[in-house]
């Protein structure tokens, strides 16, 4: 379908809350004028959030990279070290992790994202021990971490089912899963970039099990490693179908591949226009997922601001530490005041949110903005140095 009147008719239906098919989504993604696409997506967002449509949210969290040792060797990853590479590989001890949690609480963070490699020795017991220790020391912190890939890995190491692994880490303190590891769910692009990861079907199956056990999650999509437009839409169809059964995906977060320091170096990235079109299509096609997140860590601040006019209602996090996508070249940095200003200059009212998207603080008066520039200057991060050096803490936005 390339006829503009026919495309506008589909846009009008989607903007009014009607469901669109994967083929219609693909036609819109390929052929709808950018402005019309954004306008329809913004209308859909405003309708969903009638009464609070002027607000765009962010969260303060800490990403704790607990190890970079990984057996999975994804081709797009610049973070991992093979188990044999003892010079590059590192793991944090529990005291180090708890100190990072304490800093997070001190700086007003509400969420921990545990993110790391598939370590050959880390089974369910490792996560039980760490999550229960974090919850015991910091019951106020939400552990929004890991994903289906880690569950598949830890269950294999411990010789238990995915369901048992989820039950146990949930009982130990995990609150919800991040959408990590989704990458691209269709078989061809997934095998091309992450041949040792579980299949896309298995990723979704594990998320479905988690949702059935009351553990909700977000969902993500990695754009720009050579997948086709049809494969991008198929990725979303697979997620929409599971969501139709479980309702457990809180958000969808597309982000763009970063090309430095990994085996895919030189492959094309998704352009800003492709990214904005994807945000808009996500808002229109994923009519059963509440939140669409703009990921300005990978696309930049201006594109992040624009995403708020293309259907996104959330701008991710002020992240007190991040080393995975930044290892692959994501260079965008910010602090809390800057993200508040970005949202405001995009014409929206900023609000700090909880993991479950409730508004914790609405910044509707600039005179009352929180003063916390201290968070960029006095805390140390040792993630890339294996726990020895103490460079300044970096504040960056995130994608989960
Ligand atoms: S993306 Fe994750 S699973 Fe893949 S190599 Fe990197 S650390 Fe390992």
In short:
The protein is α/β, with parallel strands linked by helices and 400 residues long. The protein has helices at 4-15, 22-31, 34-48, 94-106, 124-137, 148-158, 162-172, 187-193, 200-212, 229-246, 272-285, 296-299, 301-307, 324-327, 336-345; strands at 55-65, 111-115, 142-145, 176-177, 217-223, 249-256, 291-292, 314-319, 349-353, 359-362. The chain has one domain (54-385): TIM Barrel (Alpha-Beta Barrel).
Could you describe the 3D structure shown?
By secondary structure, this protein is an alpha/beta fold. It has one domain: TIM Barrel. The protein has helices spanning 4-15, 22-31, 34-48, 94-106, 124-137, 148-158, 162-172, 187-193, 200-212, 229-246, 272-285, 296-299, 301-307, 324-327, 336-345; strands spanning 55-65, 111-115, 142-145, 176-177, 217-223, 249-256, 291-292, 314-319, 349-353, 359-362. The strands form two sheets. Strands 1, 2, 3, 4, 8, 9 and 10 form a seven-stranded mixed sheet that branches. Strands 5-6-7 form a three-stranded parallel sheet. Strand 1, helix 4 (94-106) and strand 2 form a beta-alpha-beta unit. Helix 5 (124-137) runs parallel beside helix 7 (162-172). The longest helix is centred in the middle third of the chain and has 18 residues, at 229-246. The chain starts with a helix and ends in a 38-residue tail after the last strand. Residues 374-400 have low confidence and may be disordered. Iron/sulfur cluster is lined by residues 70, 72-74, 77, 79-80, 117-118, 149. Its cofactor is [4Fe-4S] cluster.
């Amino acid at each position: 379908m390339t006829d503009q009147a026919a495309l506008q008719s589909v846009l009008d239906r989607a903007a009014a809350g009607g469901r669109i098919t994967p083929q219609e989504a693909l036609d819109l993604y390929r052929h709808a004028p950018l402005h019309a696409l954004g306008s329809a997506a913004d209308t859909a967002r405003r309708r969903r959030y009638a009464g609070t449509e002027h607000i765009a949210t962010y969260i303060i969290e800490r990403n704790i990279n607990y190890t970079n040792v990984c057996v999975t060797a994804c081709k797009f990853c610049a973070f991992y070290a093979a188990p044999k590479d003892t010079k590059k590989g590192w793991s944090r001890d529990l005291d180090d992790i708890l100190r990072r949690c304490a800093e997070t609480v001190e700086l007003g963070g509400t969420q921990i994202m545990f993110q790391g490699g598939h370590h050959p020795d880390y089974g369910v017991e490792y996560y039980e021990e760490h999550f229960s220790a974090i919850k015991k020391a910091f019951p106020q912190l939400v552990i929004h971490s890991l994903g289906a890939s880690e569950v598949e890995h830890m269950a294999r190491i411990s010789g238990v089912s995915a369901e048992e692994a989820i039950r146990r880490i949930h009982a130990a303190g995990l609150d919800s899963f991040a959408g990590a590891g989704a990458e691209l769910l269709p078989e061809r692009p997934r095998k091309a970039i992450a041949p040792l990861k579980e299949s896309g079907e298995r990723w979704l199956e594990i998320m479905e099990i988690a949702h059935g056990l009351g553990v909700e999650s977000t969902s993500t999509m990695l754009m720009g490693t050579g997948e086709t437009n049809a494969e991008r839409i198929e990725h979303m169809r697979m997620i929409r179908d599971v969501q139709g059964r479980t309702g457990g995906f809180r958000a969808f977060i597309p982000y763009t591949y970063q090309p430095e320091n990994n085996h895919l170096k030189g492959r094309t990235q998704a352009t800003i226009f492709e990214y904005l079109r994807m945000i808009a299509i996500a808002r229109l096609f994923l009519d059963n997922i509440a939140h669409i997140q703009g990921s300005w860590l990978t696309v930049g601040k201006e594109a992040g601001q624009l995403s708020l006019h293309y259907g996104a209602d959330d701008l991710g996090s002020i992240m007190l530490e991040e080393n995975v996508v930044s290892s692959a070249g994501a260079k965008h940095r910010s602090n809390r005041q800057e993200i508040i200003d970005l949202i405001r200059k995009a014409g929206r009212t900023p609000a700090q949110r909880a993991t479950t998207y409730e508004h914790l603080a609405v910044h509707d008066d600039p005179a009352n903005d929180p003063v916390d520039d201290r968070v960029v200057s006095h805390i140390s991060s040792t993630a890339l140095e294996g726990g020895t050096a103490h460079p300044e803490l970096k504040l960056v936005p995130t994608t989960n």
